[in-house]
Amino acid sequence: MRPDRLKDPSLRNATIKHVAELAGVSLKTVSRVINHEASVHERTREKVQRAIDTLGYRPDPSARSLRSTRARLLGLVYDNPNAHYIISMQRGVLSVCRESGYGLQIHPCDASSPKLAEELCALVQHSRLAGLVLAPPMSEQPELIKTLADAGIAFMRIISARSDPQDGYPCVYVDDRDAAYAITEHLIQLGHQRIGFLWGGREHRSSGERYQGYEDALKDYGITLDRKLIVAGDYSFDDGFRGARKLLALKDRPTAIFGSNDEIAAGVLAAAHSGGISVPWELSITGFEDSPFSKQSWPALTTARQATEEIGRHAARRLISGLEHDAHGEPVDPVNHGFSPELVVRGSTGPLRSAPKKRTR
Fold it and tell me: What GO molecular functions are on record for this protein (predicted)?
């Protein structure tokens, strides 16, 4: 923080983040100084205290009580209907916790709750958590993230983004857009031009990123976007089934359908089977994530393999590394790491053989 900003009226109510910026340390280090933890180097303690005095910062008593001794327990916070995603994420985070001597507490919650920030702060305090791994969509809520940071809570976000957002908060990001582009491009190169798209939940950034990849591919190949081929929904089998029935009832129905995840795609596959439509001869279907049933369905689903377990491992590793560096007053690596799901071609997609018969009324 520049010295000339110290007189800025907006800093009259200084936060722990302002202190960290002025002292040139992490939020966690400021929290350790406030809580009088012995692990902080004296030089670092003095630097933080000078920043506190300069800004006139007054710690929130509730935030100070979050941690009085070093905790070795992480929390995994999620709200996602996809059981495969959660199990894989849990497996990845837990493996790193065990390697590093940390415990793990699983905390499902309602991402739409107006008291979510209060709930998570209480969780950290009462369970004496060292930090949180935040899965989507909580990880993608700016106000929640700011509240946790201001409370001095260490966290690692898992978010959908094309590149490092560089917003000052740590994350592991997944390039869903690039993978969705590859899926759509695969269908186009098979000869498909009428490609339906079934959305996942709009509260998830991944839904918008996957749609954008689909739209970008159509544009780059000179294919006009047809809004009738785009159906809103959620990341569920039922919405995939309903969405597919709607698309397949069109007079000029699609020759391929891109489901935003494998559960949606499985619903599309069921709708095709129930309507006597041969896959992939009359309809190609793709999903996203490479969940177990993408391989177990018939035919097996073309999808994008998302390394969810490895993403969980990396998020936990980054969080624990930051905690360990903070404990010794050392700077934390600010570089965020990204993952890009890979296209996996299976039997649910094939070349366009002939235009589907138009429905007659």
Answer: DNA-binding transcription factor activity; transcription cis-regulatory region binding
HSE-CB of 298 using CA atoms within 13 angstroms: 1
Strands 284-286 and 256-259: parallel
Q: Among 120-124, 134-138, 164-168, where is mean pLDDT lowest?
A: 164-168
Say if residue 343's pLDDT is above 60.
yes
State how far the Cα of 16 lies from the Cα of 150, in Å rounded to an integer. Answer: 6
Retrieve residue 118's tokens: 């209060």
For residues 349 and 315, what is the distance between their CA atoms, to the nearest angstrom? 33
- The token pair at 138 is 């909580």
For residue 149, CA distances in Å to 63, 225, 236 come to 11, 41, 33
> Cβ distance 82 to 136 under 8 Å?
no
pLDDT in tens, 20-46: 889 888 887 887 787 666 567 788 888
Do residues 171 and 158 touch, judged by C-beta distance below 8 A? yes
H/E stretch holding 258: strand 256-259
pLDDT in tens, 67-119: 445 678 999 999 976 788 899 999 999 999 999 889 999 999 998 999 999 99
Domains of the chain listed by start with CATH number: 3-59 (1.10.260.40), 73-175+308-341 (3.40.50.2300), 176-305 (3.40.50.2300)
Residue 274 has phi, psi (to 5 degrees) of -65, -25
